[in-house]
């Protein structure tokens, strides 16, 4: 009997780890490589939401009119390091083009196709890891501090309803009945009962990686330096300690994947959209549901390590140092939204969201090398497990659960 085929997965964030586990379930011999421990990159610090109701891209109609004002106002979430603008210009051009209504609706359909599988794909993995307590489904409240702010969200709410997502519009008092810590400034809210969240994103990736190892997988702590092309055949993966060969290679290195894809012949539009969070172990308030403030662009999530408040979209390039004053903007909004919040001892964190200009992930075989697969550019916590499932199906050569054409790497 021949030995099972080997697959190397580069990147042990939530996406790479889910790819590794699903590949293993298909019978491959899998090695997961990361310079850090599993889940310690962007996947550790996110807001924890499985955003199965976000059936639209970030670039909604009219965004181009709002962006200049957002950049000028230090209390709004958008920030750019001007030196980085020339490099980011193609990304922003595509981003703006995707805000046309027809495109928004196409993207919504492509996202919805993935969202239909999000929780089932995780459930299968968490069951075998005995960690189903890590995901809870208690819904999400989106808050509005004026009738106008609710009206501004009308198109997004309509898209949700059209896709069959339950949205319940509430008064401010009804919202405070559900979450008493919210300020009286909240006048309206939209409750989305289908939203689930993880109580610990880092532990989520870690338990999946631990189960992967128990089931015979290998995790290597090495830094990938590049690739050695072997034509024909899979590339050799070069790391700080040597080189690795396998029949197939999966690139799932989050925001760092763009550089790796370029080395492998695929030019992609991928920006590090940096976000910040504050975590408070003794906040003095508790929340049952996750909160998203439509006026302040922050998300509040009750997690195991404490209350996490997240926000900011900063475009500064991959290598720029964090600008923690942006985390202070998040904190200011959190204090306004939660009057009794105790921020003493809050820790601050920055992470690189791997963002594409159309808000769709890249889940694709390389057009240049059939032995290379790409899995990055995600709203990755939400889409990690279903991406892993699709990548594993692609690796076997079987038809995939859903049509992956909208997520192909050469679409830009
Ligand atoms: C503030 C904030 C809030 C967010 N909230 C949500 C949310 O609520 N819901 C949601 O779905 N998403 C959310 N996200 C996005 C989500 O966190 C990311 O999309 C997701 O973590 C990406 O996962 P990943 O596995 O692709 O990347 P990562 O977690 O970044 O993993 C990539 C891995 O590749 C490794 N790597 C990189 N280069 C190399 C190399 N050369 N050699 C070896 N290893 C390498 C890194 O060490 C890292 O571990 C949020 C992000 C931020 C910043």
Which keywords apply here?
single chain; 412 residues; alpha/beta; FAD/NAD(P)-binding domain; D-Amino Acid Oxidase, Chain A, domain 2; 6-stranded mixed β-sheet; 12 helices; 33% helix; globular; binds flavin-adenine dinucleotide
| Number of structural domains | 2
The CATH homology group name of the largest domain: FAD/NAD(P)-binding domain
**How would you name the oligomeric state of the polypeptide chains in this document?**
single chain
Radius of gyration: 21 Å
Mean pLDDT reading = 95
Q: In what range is the share of β-strand residues?
A: 25-35%
Helical content stands at: 25-40%
Number of strands: 21
Q: How would you characterize the largest beta sheet?
A: 9 strands, mixed
Which spans of ≥5 residues are poorly predicted at pLDDT below 50?
none
Amino- and carboxy-terminal Cα gap:
43 Å
Name the overall outline. Answer: globular
- CATH fold name of the largest domain, please? FAD/NAD(P)-binding domain
Bound molecules: flavin-adenine dinucleotide
- Structural class from helices and strands? alpha/beta
What count of helical segments does DSSP give?
12
Determine and state the CATH class of the largest domain: Alpha Beta
